[in-house]
Amino acid sequence: MLMGFTPLTSEQRRSFAEDGFLVVRNALDVQTVDRLVDAGDRLAESFFKKPELFDRPEYNHLDLRPGLLREPALLDLVTNTSAVPLIVQLLSPNIHLHSMALIYKRPERPDSVPFRRGWHRDIRIPKDLGHRALPLVGIKICYCLTDFHGSDCGMTLMARGTHLRDSPLEIPKGKVDPTDVEVCDLRLNAGDALFFENRIFHTAAPNRSDRVSRVVVYGYAFRWLKPEVYLDTPNEQLLNKVDPIARQLLGGYRDVDTPPWALQEWAQRHNVHQESVPWTVES
Ligand SMILES: O=C(O)CCC(=O)C(=O)O
Prior knowledge:
- By secondary structure, this protein is α+β, with helices and mostly antiparallel strands.
- Helix content is 24%, strand content 17%.
- The chain contains nine helices and nine strands.
- The strands form two sheets. The protein has a six-stranded antiparallel sheet with strand order 1-7-4-9-3-2.
- The radius of gyration is 19 Å and the shape is globular.
- 2-oxoglutaric acid binds next to strand 3.
């Protein structure tokens, strides 16, 4: 089914600009969550079969990237009407899918050493451009497939407002988190979506609950940004089968000079303002 329209409210635009992230409640209904959990669990089969090693917490985390689009439920979500229209309104119609990850975390012992407290900004852009005046180039949608109702139950931590920070995060010696910014361990329900942009500092955190935490993350970025290497490369067979918007998002227009027809037309139909930036103007 062709992607429908969900308006971005001015409050959502404001809070995303201020915080660097945004929570959208009930982005998925219960049936869709169940279908995604079935698909995700199939893909995670060998992960679930591994014995638990409590002294190696990293062994209990799955971050699966290749092969996700082979599952129809995960493919359908690429054009999810309740979330992707917000990305088009926050970025532009000139976007494609940049990355995908299925992230599962098995419970850790409360006393296990924290693993991968790796605060970072996405896409490694600061490694070349530094932390100053970084551009917003991509937004991830993290769909919750389980509830995240307590602290330390596996949700990615967000450092509120750090998308605008022009220096590295400061973490006091002996600590794992920064103390001069607000670290948000969000309370979310299965079906909610957490949007976060490439510049915000965030990190994986332990799952000290008694259930497996499950999310699936879709990263969208401007079309001139090369997709992450792990994203399934689109094949003609798949591209010919999907609708024009899915075709664009899956990388169907190889040439960046080709206008993003499908989402441009969609944006026009839904009165989404499209910035026109000319090469030259009359003086
Ligand atoms: O495993 C996690 O919670 C971290 C995820 C992450 O860093 C990302 O999706 O960019």
